[in-house]
Write a structure and sequence with these properties.
- The chain has helices at 13-26, 48-63, 80-93, 108-113, 127-145, and strands at 2-8, 31-37, 69-77, 95-100, 116-119.
- It is α/β, with parallel strands linked by helices.
- It has a single domain, classed as 3-Layer(aba) Sandwich (Alpha/beta knot).
- The model has no long low-confidence stretch (mean pLDDT 94).
- It is an enzyme of class 2 (transferase).
- It catalyses: pseudouridine(1915) in 23S rRNA + S-adenosyl-L-methionine = N(3)-methylpseudouridine(1915) in 23S rRNA + S-adenosyl-L-homocysteine + H(+).
Amino acid sequence: MKIKIIVPGKLSKHLKSAVDFYIKRLKRFAKLEIIYTKLGGDLNVMDSKTILNKEAQNILNAIGKADFILLDLHGEKVTSEQFARMIETDRLKGNMTFVIGGPLGVSELLRDQAKRRISLSDLTFTHELALLILLEQIFRGFKIIMNEKYHY
């Protein structure tokens, strides 16, 4: 299975080792590709809607024609077990793509085009922290699918 994650911006050094921790552990379950796209612009120069639309275009260019699951604060709330079932369903198709919004969130364009929208929490996270949480949940999902214990 191939899992692609699209994230605007880049990863801060202080989170790199944590992200690498999950990338390493996920290798036995799936081929993982994280694509960092360009941010939409500077709030001091542009309005937020323009920035969100530019980020959406950058994300859609990176996705191509693939269906994607959007991480969205206003998306569906799922448990880890439900998330694991999503992975298992898409594993049969061979590919799964996730999109994380940038510092300002996501545009309506992305919301409209998403195959599914899920929320990681009612809390708001930075896009970098959302990536780390998503990786952990993907790893947990595979452990659930394989009936393996999960203790870290």
